[in-house]
Each structure stands twice: as C-alpha cells, then as structure tokens.
Amino acid sequence: MTKIIDSKIPEGPIAEKWTNYKAHQKLVNPANKRRLDIIVVGTGLAGASAAASLGEMGFRVFNFCIQDSPRRAHSIAAQGGINAAKNYQNDGDSVYRLFYDTVKGGDYRAREANVYRLAEVSNNIIDQCVAQGVPFAREYGGTLANRSFGGAQVSRTFYAKGQTGQQLLLGAYSALSRQVGAGTVKLYTRYEMEDIVIIDGRARGIIAKNLVTGKLERFAAHAVVIATGGYGNTYFLSTNAMACNCSAAMACYRKGAWFANPAYVQIHPTCIPVHGDKQSKLTLMSESLRNDGRIWVPKKLEDAKALQAGTKQGRDIPEEDRDYYLERRYPAFGNLVPRDVASRAAKERCDKGYGVNNTGLAVFLDFSEAISRLGKDVVAQRYGNLFDMYEEITDVSPYENPMMIYPAIHYTMGGIWVDYELQTSIKGLFAIGECNFSDHGANRLGASALMQGLADGYFVLPYTIQNYLADQITVPRFSTDLPEFAEAEKAVQDKIDHLMNIKGKKSVDSIHKELGRVMWEYVGMGRTEEGLKTGLAKLKDIRKEFETELFIPGSKEGMNVELDKAIRLNDFITMGELIAYDALNRNESCGGHFREEYQTEEGEAKRDDENYFYVACWEYQGSDDKAPVLYKEPLVYEAIKVQTRNYKS
Amino acid sequence: MDKNISFTLKVWRQNGPKEKGHFDTFQMEDIPGDTSFLEMLDILNEQLIEAGKEPVVFDHDCREGICGMCSLYINGHPHGPATGATTCQIYMRRFNDGDVITVEPWRSAGFPVIKDLMVDRSAYDKIMQAGGFISVGTGAPQDANAILIPKPIADEAMDAASCIGCGACVAACKNGSAMLFVSAKVSQLNLLPQGKPEALRRAKAMLAKMDELGFGNCTNTRACEAECPKCVSISNIARLNRDFIKAKLKD
Predict the structure, then answer these.
(1) Considering only CA atoms, which of B35, B33, B39, B36 is closest in space to residue B2?
(2) Is the CB of residue A510 less than 8 Å away from at least one CB of chain B?
(3) I need a labelling partner for A314 at 20 to 30 A (CA). Which of A100, A151, A254, A515 fits?
(4) Residues of A in contact with B67 (CB under 8 A)
(5) Homologous superfamily, domain B122-135+147-250
(6) Predicted complex ipTM
C-alpha cells in the first residue's frame, strides 16, 4: 500500500525542532479566539490540562466526561510518580538522557522528535504543578525529593506519596475548575461521546449521550480533541478503572482516523494475581516496590508444587532454594528492569511450572531481606499503605510472608495516530494523552504516562492547535441542525435500537469476560502466528455471540447502565481484532509485543529493524467484517543510534 | 483460605430523584470471602439480569480506593465497616454467615438521588469552581525549587490533599455539612506559600458557595473524621474557620 504519511516533523537538529516550530507556527489573536469553539472529550491529565489551558487562552471550550466529576478520571490512580529532567539530584540527568532512556525503553519504536519534545517540556510540567499547589514530596531543606524508577539509572521521578496521579490530576482539575468558574469552559459530566461529526472532511462536532437521561445530544465546534485514555479494558481484567473504554477512539477510527501500533500493550509486572472468576479488576502494586522487594520463585519444582497445593508457604523455602531470576538474568538492573522485561520473565518461570499460588500464575515479591536490612519501621514508612492494601485484598501480611504478584494489562502504548502537531489523520481532530500513540514506542517507562498527559495538555496542544485554527477564524459557528449532525445522531440511535432488540440471554459482562479470556490467551504476553489466527477466529465467534445472544434489561429511555456497557463492548470487540491484526503483522518482538517465534537464545525480544522499523497505521474499511488496511510511517532516527536493548551490563 | 458466606441483602431502590424509594431484599448464597463488596453487587446484578430484571445502579470506577466514585451506606456507615477504606476496598470476609446487610445511597440534602444507590455530587464541583484553585495560568512559572517549602508543611498539605471528594463526610454529618471537604482543599492550598495570596478570599468564597448550595454547618461531632476513608482530620476545619474569621474581620 503506498500512501505518503506526513508526520510534519519540523526541520533542524533534534534539540531545535520544537523551538523552531513555535517560532514559525501560526497564532490566533485574542479577539478571534473568542469566536472559536473547541470540544475536549475527557478530563484526565491530558483532557483537563488541555481544557484549562485552552479556556484560559480565550477559546470557548466544551469539556466532557463520563463520570460525575472531572476528578474521577483514571489518571487519578497512578501511584508512583512523574519523570522530569531537572537533574536536581546532580546525578547526570539531562533532557537528552531522559529522551534517550524513553526511546530505549520504548525499544526504538517511538518517534524521535516527539520524544525529544516530551523530555524538553518535562521540566515545565514540574514548575507548573508546583505553582498550582501540588504537594510533591520534599526534603528537609524544602527542596523537591526524587526517587528512581525502572529503566533509568538516575533519580528523576517526582512524587506525592503513592498518590502522584491523584495530586497531579487534582492540580489540573483545580485549573479546570477555575476556568469553569470564569465561564471559559463549559463542563458536561455524565456524558459519553458516541460519535464524531465530520463536515467537508473536517471534525466539527460530536454526538454525546447524556448518561442520566439517556438522550443523545449534538455539539458543534471548530475542532475536536479526544483525551479518552487507552484500551486496556479490551482484556476485561486490567488495572484500568471499570468505565475506561475505547469507544471514543473507535468512533474516530470508524470515521477514518488511523489507529497506530495497537499491538503495543503494556503488561505491568507487579499486580495482585487473579483469584477467581467473579473478579472485576486487577489491583496494581506500585513499581516503587521493586526498589526494595526481591522477586523470586523456587529453584525446585517440588517446592513449587507444594506451594501450589498450599502445603508450603513462601517463608518455608530456604534461601539457597530460591531463584532470584531477575537478578540472575539482568545483573546491572536487577529487579528494576523495564516492565515488559520483568513481566515476560515472570511468565517464563510460571510457564515452566514454577508459579507459587494455587493457579500457578504468581511469583514472589519478597521484603524479608529489606526488613532485616532496614527494619520493619522503615519498610512500613516507605510501603505501609501498599502493604495494608495488599493485606486487605489477600488476607496475607507482606511483613510475614512474601507478596504474590503476577503481570496484568496496565497501559496501552498504541492509539490514534497523530502527527507532530497531535492532529489525527482527520483534519481538526486531535488526540492527546494515552489515547494517542506517539511517545512511548513499544513500551512505556514508569512515571512517563503522567509526564506525557500533562505535556500534551499544557504545553504542546495549546500551541499546535492554533496552527490549525488560524485559518478557521472566518468560519462561523456551525448549526447542529446540519444534515451531518442529523445523520450521525441517527446512526447512533440505530445502533442503540439494534442492541436493545437483540434480546438474547447473555449479559454484557459475561460476553466481555469471554472476550478478555480470548485476548489474554491468544493476544496477551506471548503471541504466536498460529495463536493469533486462532484468536482472530474466536473473536469472530464472540462478535457473532454478541450480535445474537446479548441481553440488555430495561429500556433505552433514561439511565441504562447495561446499555452503555453494551455500546462499549461492541467497540472492545473491534479493538480486540485490531490488536490481533497488528500483532500478526508485526513479525518481530519489541517492547510490550512479544512474538514467541522471534526471540534470542536467552529468551529476549528480537527486533527486526530491517523490516519493521515503522509505525503501523491501520485504516478502517467501512465495516467490522472487513480487515483493516495497513499504512506505514517509516521511523527516521537522526539523534539516536538504534541498537539492541541491554539491561544486563 | 476464605470461607464462603450466605446472607440477606437489603438494597435501596429508587427510580429517580422525585420518585418514592423502597428496599428490595435478596438472598445471597455462597459468596467467597475474597470477593470485594462491589464485586458482590456485580454478582447480584448478574443474577438480576439473568432473571430479566434491571440491575441495581451504583457509582463505582477505579475500585482501588482513589477515584472517590463509590459511595454507599453499608449497615448505616458510609463506606461500610472498615476505617480508612472506601466501599470498593471492603471484602466480604468482614461479614458473617447469616448477616443482614443494608445498603443505601448517601442521604443528604446536598446529594439528591439520581437512581437507586447513585447520587448527584455536582455540588462539590461548584464549590471547587468558587475558589478551590491557585490563580496561576499555564505558561512558564518560576523554577519549582525556587519556592522552598519546609517538609512538615508539605506533608501537612499532602495529608489534606488526600481527600478523594467522595462525599462520605457530608453523608456522615447530621447537619449535612461539607466542611471537611471544603477545609481539606482550603488547608492544602492555604498552607502552601503559593496559595497564601488568595488564602482569605478562597476560604470566604468556598464557604459562601457551600452555604448557597444548602449544606449545613459544622457542630464538631467529628462524625466526618470518623467515617472519612482517607482519615482527613477535622483540624482542617479549625484552620478553615481561622481563615474565615480573619477574612471577615478584614471586610
């Protein structure tokens, strides 16, 4: 397929691109800003910071969220921290090093220019958040404290207890609230975007469902920004919140926006293992635990069997019979290897039969050594709240027995394709935060999601969107009575009627759980060509089952939570197929995408830079029954030498 | 290993803000102890759907105790029997075989019921919009380390900032007061040097909005503090009152 993909990367050396861009981009004057409307869908870190900044600049902003308040967005749950290249610790950090670590952590599949810009604005984010009153951790001298995170050899992570995401989101929510109070942003809570409205090839509005009244409503604007997060809940069980969904992104995809690198799904190594079939979500145990916790499984299979049968406990296994497999395999980074590496290593041990719980799908994260080295008090100070949370969920005290952990779906690096301006392949439609694809390549480093969300919302989009809007100043406001709005609304209404009329026997969740099982088994941590093909066939079955067996109680009038979930599940199934298509196409292993056929003798991911050094952009073909078409955006590396990732030495 | 338990569940059902509500009673059988309270409600809802009935509506999202979306009175206590935990962090092993468990929505004039167990907490957003911020624009503020903040102050601000905006304090208060919520945000911002210039204006504006929206005042019963899932202290209310009085004296 030949298609010229213009990612609009500015000219010049990497360190000057963003400065050059800003110096030459078009701006909108204050009087004209008042005449331009922008819809922002989502109020997480990216959405709230963008809506607040755009409102403050003078645009008229409409901001939507599906929860009862912007403060509920799932950014709130991020625990560990946010990276920035401040070099406050004098440990050799710099913008270049943060850029380099992020590109390397992403297994050389990110777009260089975007990542450099991200590293560049990272320092502004910390300044901005402190000015807003975000209570970051401090040293006794009053300066900001830092900690280290996976994939880096410097301490560049800023944090607020184990609640960094919460504090940053509340900062952005405060800024947003200020603008709502000032009347520049109008807020719509408990509204869900159902479709995007395109007029003459440009995004000009959305159809949103009022989740309380059940009514569809039309909203027009000069540009639309989606900041609706990732698609991790395709797998049913994930660390995402229950309402996280990919429907807004899928609506854009169905209207022609390309979806990039869907196969890059991050599996976080330290989650509490699955315990039963009634479980609704997985709980993350912060990556910061890997600073002091040591990960191991037994050396002997008979010990593993005894642990699985419950006849032995972790503390009964003597030191010499423990296999600290991360320290063994990766001496330089040890327990602090990047997430994809740690997750795969856990799976490898469990697949060989060394898992330590009743399902055989868990490894130990052990603090006994840290407790004897530092004392129980120090360990409690550092991790007390996490230990309490673990004990509440599992009824086991991590002070006495090692924690059990297992990898779980956590974050999605893939997303709607955007150019350097964060504009999608549809004019006037922008995607920011986790819902775009641009900065993390094939694997995201810890504490980088918060950085990217806020970078996009505070410091990138407010500039780049002006370059688009500058020639829109003469375009009058659109009427929502235009036929394009009526058509889009009717299509959504027809879909709702269709779902309500299936009248089968199965609940949304029961079908979603089946989808999750298929995704985890065939499109999960270890993928094969054969497995992916089987997975795709099974996804077709699930689609059929959904279309014939679905049951939604109640009516389409008023609030109907099951109907809203069904609409989302419809999109998760399409998303699942998209992940599988991309995974099948990418005949290499890189970052979060591991194809078992492509590994080194030591079991490490084996990339194929010759054939797969590109961003995979998928285009919808008008129907869920047709396979999407692939376009390629070649990656061009100017500043960094592409090499094999090495965390051993 | 956790035991399975069977119990009676009484759940508040209400079709809309103006409709009359009632309790529905359900028998729950063989629920594993490692099921979270909300997963138990999921099980109930699956059973209802299987029987062709409408599921119970309740607010929930992150299910790890941080988003503030979940609510519920469980046996008369906001967020149920545990201290320092939200409803989503309660596990069924805390209950006994044969128990009767009563589940109700937040009951407070400031939080009208939307449906069943779901209430409207948008008043909190409105209070925030009145002054829950520092007036700084997006752009290029001074270097983050240019403002030195003593660790004890930063820690105290962080403790206040850990409020998740769930509304348990209002639900627990016999006056339906939102003072703990308001004081937590005011304390966080007024303690920090960045928030000082607007401190008095903020206290006054947020309290005025709280009164306007029909929340009651504080009579120091400390019920809010006892039920707060994040253990936010009522010393924040004392700080808010001091700032409020200072602001009034300057008027």
Answers:
(1) B33
(2) yes
(3) A151
(4) 67, 71-72, 74, 76-77, 241
(5) Alpha-helical ferredoxin (1.10.1060.10)
(6) 0.98
The encoded tokens of residue A276 equal 């039963």
Alpha helix segments (H runs only) across A79-133: 95-105, 112-132
- A202-223: pLDDT as tens digits: 999 999 999 999 999 999 999 9
B120 contact residues in A (CB cutoff 8 A): 68
Give B-chain residues touching A136 at CB under 8 angstroms: 144, 154
Beta bridge partners of B61: none
Active-site residue, from A109, A294, A322, A339: A339
Nearest to A80 by CA among A173, A156, A153: A156
CATH of domain A270-407: 3.90.700.10
The structural domains of chain A, with segments of one domain joined by +, span 270-407, 483-634
Nearest to A553 among B54, B151, B157 (CB): B54
Q: Work out whether strand A429-431 and strand A223-226 pair parallel, antiparallel, or are unpaired.
A: parallel
A131·B89 Cβ contact <8 A: no
Measure the CA–CA gap between A242 and A246, rounded to whole angstroms: 12
Backbone angles phi, psi at B45, to 5 degrees: -65, -40
Helix, strand, coil share (%) of chain A residues, nearest 5? 45, 15, 40
pLDDT of residue A2: 58
A538-A541-A545 Cα angle (round to 5): 140
Helical H segments across A503-597, by residue range = 508-522, 529-549, 561-585
**For A259-308, what is each residue's pLDDT tens digit?**
999 999 999 999 999 987 888 899 998 888 888 999 999 999 999 999 99
- Interface contact A177-B133, CB threshold 8 A: yes
Q: Which CATH number fits domain B4-115: 3.40.1260.10, 2.170.190.11, 3.10.20.30, 2.30.42.10?
A: 3.10.20.30
Architecture category of domain A483-634 in CATH = Up-down Bundle (1.20)
The domain segmentation of chain B, as residue ranges, is 4-115, 122-135+147-250
Domains B4-115 and B122-135+147-250 alike in fold: no
B67/A140 touch (CB, cutoff 8 Å), yes or no: no
- A339 catalytic per annotation: yes
A69 to chain B, any CB pair closer than 8 A? The answer is: yes
Q: B65 vs chain A: nearest CA distance in angstroms?
A: 9
Cβ contact, residue pair A138, B157, below 8 Å: no
